[in-house]
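Backbone-to-sequence.
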């Protein structure tokens, strides 16, 4: 027998309680609630033969982004197939997508989700998984076109419409349409203040517009506002910290780091990305971060051999480089190179991640010139490693630092001039540009750059 969920997507079941439990678990999942895992467990306990419940559990396991879950997820799919359970086309396709993903072929999984959405554009789970994995493979055009291909089949009365708006806002942001992204993102947040992805989309749009004051206001929330949320919340606070960083309020950044990000530090891939990225930005801005690297390098080293997301890989390499753990960094890069031999070309960003990691290793070993050459050679080709424009901007900062440290002053000036155009409201950008002008012997121009930084800092303080 077939019933439909609250968006009209078919489920092979005759039990409305199963459908209702699935709808509840899916909504908690889409809202990044910690309780989503418990809701899925209860669904599977009460309805052990639920196909879509098993699919949702499999997707959640895969989003841990650790190769250790692959065999477990593959076994879950194999069990359903072996049991010869009744399934409809939608459910079989979801199982196919999950199987491809668990076999490290995320592009094949995305193709399956495309087929699901073509037949059922209101399958919000397929859309979310497509959106999530496409983001981590850096395909901005596909990210946008996929959401645009379904959004007109939705309307505000359809449960989950707010989530679709949030995905559209983020996709528009990654396509450079920042004002439109902010407008749609704010509409999504107004419709559903619980969806961290929509909040995340607005944060991105504000960051990319250099709207530091508006960004600070956006994140003025009660201390316990998001206490129920899962570890993705750390990334939201990372975004909150970028606004005071750009304003030159480094004490505020350290406060957010210590009280919002660091307390939840784990081996979770997003924690490694968030913490290493923020500490590096602070250090490149001349801030002494003290012992804050702490156990982060241990977490990064523990990822050696577990290469799932290339964006996590480069941040692990970065962490080991910034903490001078040269031997472990070398072992990590060698592990990444061995992984490439087994990958079979399924991960487009892997060769770029390896080059970035080699650049970081060279600079960490004191050869900043080679590091700058390696990183500079891929500076315009970083999208396939995944992440957003805002996240990948870190490597532009690192390139300028390597170049200047290598003594290539004119080239560093060229890079930093471009940054002042791209980020005109960024205090650390103007500060670094001023330092490069000093190194070039252009004291008058340097004074001007430092004055711009001071003016920006003063403006943000008022």
């Amino acid at each position: 027998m077939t019933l439909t969920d609250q968006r009209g997507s078919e489920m092979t079941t005759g039990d409305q309680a199963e459908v209702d439990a699935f709808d509840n678990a899916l909504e908690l999942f889409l809202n990044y609630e910690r309780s989503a895992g418990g809701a899925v467990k209860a669904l599977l306990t009460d309805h052990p033969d639920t196909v879509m419940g098993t699919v949702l559990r499999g997707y959640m396991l895969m989003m841990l982004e650790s190769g250790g879950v692959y065999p477990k997820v593959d076994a879950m799919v194999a069990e359903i197939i072996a049991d010869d359970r009744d399934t409809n086309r939608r459910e079989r396709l979801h199982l196919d997508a999950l199987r491809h993903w668990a076999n490290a072929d995320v592009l094949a999984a995305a193709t399956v989700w495309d087929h699901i959405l073509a037949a059922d554009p209101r399958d919000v789970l397929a859309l979310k998984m497509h959106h999530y994995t496409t983001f981590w493979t850096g395909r901005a055009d596909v990210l946008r076109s996929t959401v645009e291909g379904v959004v007109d089949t939705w309307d505000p009365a359809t449960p989950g419409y707010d989530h679709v708006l949030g995905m559209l806002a983020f996709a528009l942001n990654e396509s450079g349409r920042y004002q439109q992204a902010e407008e749609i993102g704010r509409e999504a947040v107004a419709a559903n203040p619980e969806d961290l992805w929509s909040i995340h989309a607005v944060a991105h749009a504000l960051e990319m517009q250099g709207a530091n004051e508006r960004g600070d206001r956006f994140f003025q929330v009660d201390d316990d506002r998001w206490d129920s949320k899962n570890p993705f919340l750390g990334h939201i606070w990372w975004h909150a910290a970028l606004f005071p960083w750009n304003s030159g309020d480094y004490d505020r950044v350290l406060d957010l780091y210590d009280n919002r990000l660091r307390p939840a530090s784990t081996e979770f891939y997003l924690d490694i990305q968030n913490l290493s990225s923020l500490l590096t930005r602070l250090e490149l801005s001349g801030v002494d971060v003290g012992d804050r690297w702490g156990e982060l390098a241990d977490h990064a080293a523990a990822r050696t051999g577990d290469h799932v997301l290339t964006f996590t890989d480069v941040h692990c390499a970065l962490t080991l480089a910034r903490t001078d753990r040269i031997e472990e960094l070398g072992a990590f890069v060698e592990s990444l190179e061995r992984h490439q031999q087994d990958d079979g070309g399924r991960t487009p960003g892997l060769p770029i991640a390896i080059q970035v990691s080699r650049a970081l290793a060279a600079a960490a070993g004191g050869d900043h010139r080679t590091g700058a050459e390696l990183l500079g050679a891929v500076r315009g080709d970083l999208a396939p490693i995944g992440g957003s424009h805002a996240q990948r901007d870190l490597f532009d900062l690192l390139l300028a630092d390597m170049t200047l440290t290598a003594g290539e002053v004119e080239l560093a000036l060229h890079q930093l001039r471009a940054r002042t155009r791209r980020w005109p409201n960024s205090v650390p950008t103007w500060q670094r540009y001023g330092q490069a002008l000093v190194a070039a012997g252009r004291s008058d121009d340097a004074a001007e750059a430092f004055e711009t930084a001071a003016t920006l800092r003063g403006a943000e303080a008022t």
